[in-house]
Specification:
Layout: H1 4-15, H2 35-38, E1 47-53, E2 57-64, H3 68-79, E3 84-85, E4 89-96, E5 99-107, E6 111-118
Antiparallel strand pairs: 1-2, 2-6, 3-4, 4-5, 5-6
Length: 119
């Protein structure tokens, strides 16, 4: 239940993207997020659409042309947790490296991945 609002927020953000490719960008002045800062792997070949970091949260929104099932399998392995959800948005939550993660995955013609880690 404690992840319900977080998942809702992630699903909203991921679902609001348009189908046009977005420029790689960052909400953080230090540039696009790295795997070291994010704490989980960035899906191979994915474009970083936005990323950011605060004292409490690290996040990244990614896009890839790979199918949803392949991306889900990648992040299930990364977090050692199973995805849940419906046929529109899937969520994976777990812990890694002292951070708690919520990952939402959906498809609007491209596969969208929203990663949020709480430090």
């Amino acid at each position: 239940m404690k992840y319900l609002l977080l998942f809702a927020a992630i699903a909203f953000v991921v679902g609001c993207g348009d189908s046009k490719p977005a420029a790689t960008g960052s909400n953080d002045a230090s540039g696009p997020i790295t795997e070291a800062r994010l704490g989980v792997k960035i899906y191979p070949g994915a474009t970083i659409v936005t990323s950011g970091e605060t004292d409490e949260i690290v996040s990244a929104n990614l896009r890839t042309s790979d199918p949803v099932v392949k991306v889900i399998a990648f992040y299930e392995t990364e977090l050692g947790a199973k995805a849940s959800g419906d046929t529109v948005t899937y969520q994976i939550s777990g812990q890694k490296g002292g951070k708690t993660y919520a990952i939402a995955i959906n498809n609007d013609g491209m596969t969208n991945v929203s990663i949020m880690g709480k430090k």
